[in-house]
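---------- Forwarded message ----------

FYI, see the HTH luxR-type domain-containing protein record below. Original note from H. follows.
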Amino acid sequence: MYMDIEKWVMRSQQIHSKRQLEHFCIEFGKEFGLKNYLLCVFTPTHLQEAELFMVNNYPSEWLTRYFEHSYKHTDPVVMHCLNGITPILWQNTEVICQVKPECDINIMYEAQEFGLQDGITVPLRGMGGEFGLFSYSTDTVIGMDDQMQISSIMLGIVPFLYEAISRIQAKKSGVDIKLTQRELECMKWTAEGKTAWETAQILGVSERTVNFHVNNVIEKMGASNRQHAVAKVLLKGHLLPSI
């Protein structure tokens, strides 16, 4: 199994476009006899909304129904991925619905009408607060041995697929905001609720210098004020907890 993971990791590192990502997902599915795939990432753009990146070959009729009825709010697979980091076997979704009353098991039954009989999903997390999932499904029941092998390999390659998506999105936007070390230091203490004067005392600089760096961040991030800049810096993953 190690060689299988190594092979797919190496292939994932060659992905630089959406088409290459789609081809990768199709080839991975073929190797394990899995017909349908879905790989998606929600990237926070504001506190109230997120941008969706998705590649898939699910039946279009099913996707239309899924989004029109906002199934993502009660989908047991999504509910698991929102709060967990382990793979979810679709055969276990009834158990999830028993402990999470907000889940609707009927979504899984509806999916079967479109040939999505059984599947495996792995949650995806990003450094900037991104959330997503990596799914494969088929029109037959997946055996236990296959479930364990496939889910283990999917779990091993999903961080590399996240990096591939990051490369694709960075290439598409053409924007890579860089903050200096001093700007990050000023924003870190601003995020902790410190005033410009308090931050200046901590860093051993003048209050004017702190305001200069904070204003630079406000401009770079396209923010309207300090609080807005803090939110954007956190959403983009520029500030990470100290360890």
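H. also flagged this: DSSP finds eleven helices and five strands in the chain.
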